[in-house]
Write a structure and sequence with these properties.
There is one protein chain. About 35% of the residues lie in helices and about 20% in strands. The radius of gyration is 21 Å and the shape is elongated. Strand 10 and strand 11 form a beta hairpin. The strands form 3 sheets. Strands 5-4-3-6-9-11-10 form a 7-stranded mixed beta sheet, sandwiched between helices. Strands 1-2 form a two-stranded antiparallel sheet. Strands 7-8 form a two-stranded parallel ribbon. It starts with 7 loop residues before the first helix and ends in a 6-residue tail after the last strand. By secondary structure, the protein is of the alpha/beta class.
Length: about 280
């Protein structure tokens, strides 16, 4: 094949021998810069050897386990196409549950805070659905804030950004606080498996106590940054529902409820601060 000019068909065959069909077609189409339907409609079309080499490299990266989102540099979330890099956690459909749970609680003029924004997925989805709301996105990593700003600019969405560790240095009160924080136990073997091997540890590891350390901190500190009657919405692991509900109630939250993800697993717990200051 090296001596002859490869065709689109040969590129597809090359990738499909090594990867599942959907991933193969996605990577080939992106590498060659052609729509997916062209892979079969114009399969005899010649491919530049440089493009073939680029395609082969992306296939090899996926064979090594690198997530497709990092290879392509993009990921779909809610109704947005987001730029992603290895600096951020890859947005997942599970986290759309956080957006869906929060939106009914957000008035048109609400103040919303997204803690640990990463690429900005949750904050930007909310800003798109509630354009009159004031949305602030924070992250402890400046690289994440830079990426969030790029996504906001490209999508034409208005989101304020700030480098911050949880609530440190955050001024004012918010009507809704949302977060998809690290919640995997530090010793969980899944951290060394699949896509998680490539994702930033700081965005995954929630502490040695069942992954609850950062979740507990958010619950403990959130009331000081919430307006009376404001809501805290937290994504968490499927085995953390009871612990989260107990922590919410012990901190004085009311109307505590757990929302389930698309696979009917407990994924997001919300609670309302009392409608008065203690």
């Amino acid at each position: 094949m090296a001596e002859a000019t490869p065709t689109i068909r040969e590129c597809v065959d090359y990738a499909r021998r090594r990867l599942p069909r959907h991933e193969a077609e996605l990577l080939v189409g992106t590498s060659l810069g052609v729509p997916r339907n062209h892979l079969y409609a114009f399969d005899e079309r010649a491919v530049d050897p440089v493009a073939f080499a680029r395609m082969a490299e992306t296939v090899a990266r996926r064979q090594d386990g690198e997530p497709v989102a990092y290879i392509l540099g993009m990921r779909g979330f809610w109704n947005l196409d987001l730029e992603v890099t290895a600096d951020v956690l890859i947005p997942r459909p599970d986290t759309e549950t956080l957006v869906a749970a929060a939106l009914p609680l957000i008035r048109s003029n609400a103040r919303v805070l997204d803690i640990g924004t990463g690429c900005g997925a949750v904050a930007l989805a909310i800003a798109g659905e509630r354009p009159q709301a004031s949305v602030t996105a924070t992250d402890v990593d400046p690289a994440c804030i830079t990426l969030c700003r790029r996504n906001a600019a490209r999508l034409g969405l208005s989101v304020a950004t700030r480098v911050a560790d949880c609530f440190e240095g955050i001024d004012g009160r918010f009507d809704v606080i949302v977060s998809n924080p690290p919640y995997v136990d530090d010793d969980d073997p899944r951290l060394d498996q699949g896509d998680l091997r490539f994702e930033p540890r700081r965005a995954l590891r929630g502490g040695p106590n069942g992954g609850l350390d950062i979740l507990a901190r958010l619950i403990r500190e959130a009331p000081d940054c919430l307006s009376p009657g404001g809501w805290l919405c937290l994504e968490h692991g499927v085995d953390q529902e009871r612990a989260l509900a107990r922590a919410f109630r012990e901190r004085g939250f009311r109307r505590v409820r757990c929302h389930r993800d698309i696979e009917n697993r407990p994924r997001v717990t919300v609670g309302c601060k009392e409608n008065r200051e203690s």
